[in-house]
Structure formats: C-alpha cells, structure tokens
C-alpha cells in the first residue's frame, strides 16, 4: 500500500476484503471506496480525504456533501503512480520516502525493459479482466496493459482512450494471441472458477493458439490489480518471467 510505504498514518479506510498493512488494522472503516459514508468521515475530522482520479466524477457529490476539497491521484499507470508518489511525498513531508520508493521502481523497470529489449521476439498478449459473472478485455491504456508493455509483451488490443472494452471472442480468435492473461477484480476465487468454466464450455477458446500451447495464465490480484500499486516491481518481474520462461 502506497501510504504505508510512505509511512503515513490514516484516520479512516474504505471497506475491503483485501489484507491491509498491520498498522491500519484497527483504523475505522468508512464504507465502500466509491460510496463512503459522509457522516462516518465527518466524525473522524480528517484534514485530507484522498482518492484516485479514475473515480473523480463519481466522487464529486461525496466531497460536496463533506464540504471539503478532493485530492485525486493518478494510479492508472506506473508512470502516473510514480508522479502521485512524488506529489504525496511533497504534500505530506515524505520526500525521502517517496524518492526511495520511486528509485526502487525505476531500477526494477529499467532492468526488466533492458532484458526485454534483448529478446528477438515479443509475445502477443490478450488480457482478460474478470468480475463475478462477466469479463472485459484490458487495452494498452490499462494499468495491466502498461505492465505488459514494460515486460516486453505486445497487447493485441490497442485503443485511443479506454482501459477496458467488451470482448468478441470471434474477433479475438482472428488476432490469435500467443499468451492469454486472466486477471480477477473482486472475489478472485469466484472469478477464477468463472474463467475456467468459460474456457471449458465455450468451444471457441480451444481454437486459440494460447490455449493449445497451454499459455493461459491466471494472475493474482496481488501483486497485480487493476490500479497501480507498490507491488509493481513484483508484477513486472512475474510478467517478464511468464513471457520469456523458455528463453532464459
């Protein structure tokens, strides 16, 4: 968690099934990330209420009711997160911690990019982002798409401005990726079972090169996730190892 890495205390946290750093274990919950409880937040008397730019429009009514300025940070890409880390460091007097964290991420990123650049062939990668009951295709503008590019993969879905789009399996088959990544967003075990059922019961998947070659991989929410996080170093490394495990 970024705030933990920056050694920042908090007075309230969103409700989450994820395990948070131990220092935040007893911090009061304020409701869902996109629907925080205004009264619960007011009782905590925060000086700053932080959110992410992805849900800025949805959060405006909440900040209006709270009568406070909203602070939004970009966690849509590794670069965006690193800029946000610098901003948080400047804002909360954690410049040294922010620099140390960004220096580490830059070091890992550079190492992975250098190794990937030496590879003669880069795999074509399809990324499926699943929620219970359905899934979308992650484009090159998504955070996971950003990581795939850094790790030396070529995202088969490129668009101008959307992070996720609806999928058409017939069109995806025409692209015929070398590798398929399946990423859960919420209830990971349920989503994993959903993907397994989809690939088993929908006959078209067996015609994909990635399926025939057993190059379909289920990613864990940690270290991945749909928004940038400080486990990006592990995520980049894991993706590179998946893409080039036969070329070490």
From TrEMBL:
Residues 1-247 form the Fe/B12 periplasmic-binding domain. Pfam families: Peripla_BP_2. GO terms for biological process: cellular response to iron ion; heme transport. The keyword Transmembrane helix does not apply. PROSITE patterns: FE_B12_PBP. GO terms for cellular component: membrane. It comes from the Bacteria. InterPro entries: ABC_Transporter_SBP, ABC_transptr_haem-bd_IsdE, ABC_transptr_periplasmic_BD. Keywords: Cell membrane, Heme, Iron, Lipoprotein, Membrane, Metal-binding, Palmitate, Signal, Transport. Belongs to the bacterial solute-binding protein 8 family. This is High-affinity heme uptake system protein IsdE. It comes from Staphylococcus aureus subsp. aureus MN8.
């Amino acid at each position: 968690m970024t705030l933990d890495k920056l050694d920042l205390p908090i007075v309230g946290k969103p409700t989450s099934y994820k395990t948070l750093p131990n220092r935040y274990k007893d911090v009061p919950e304020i409701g869902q990330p996109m629907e925080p409880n205004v009264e619960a937040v007011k009782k905590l008397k925060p000086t700053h209420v932080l959110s992410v730019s992805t849900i800025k429009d949805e959060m405006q009514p909440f900040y209006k009711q709270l009568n406070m300025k909203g602070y939004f940070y970009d966690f849509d890409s590794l670069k965006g997160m690193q800029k946000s880390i610098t901003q948080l460091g400047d804002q909360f007097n954690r410049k040294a911690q922010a620099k140390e964290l960004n220096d580490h991420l830059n070091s890992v990123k550079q190492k992975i990019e250098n190794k990937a650049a030496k590879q003669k062939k880069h795999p074509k990668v399809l990324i499926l982002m699943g929620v219970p009951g359905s899934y979308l295709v992650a484009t090159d503008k998504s955070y996971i798409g950003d990581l795939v590019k850094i790790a030396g993969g070529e995202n088969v879905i490129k668009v101008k401005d959307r992070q996720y789009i609806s999928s058409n399996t017939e069109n995806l088959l025409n692209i015929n990726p070398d590798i398929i990544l399946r990423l859960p967003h919420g209830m990971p075990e349920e989503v994993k079972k959903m993907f397994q059922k989809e690939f088993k019961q929908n006959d078209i998947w067996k015609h994909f090169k990635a399926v025939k070659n057993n190059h379909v991989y289920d990613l864990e929410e940690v270290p991945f996730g749909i928004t940038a996080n400080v486990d990006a170093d592990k995520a980049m490394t894991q993706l590179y190892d998946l893409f080039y495990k036969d070329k070490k």
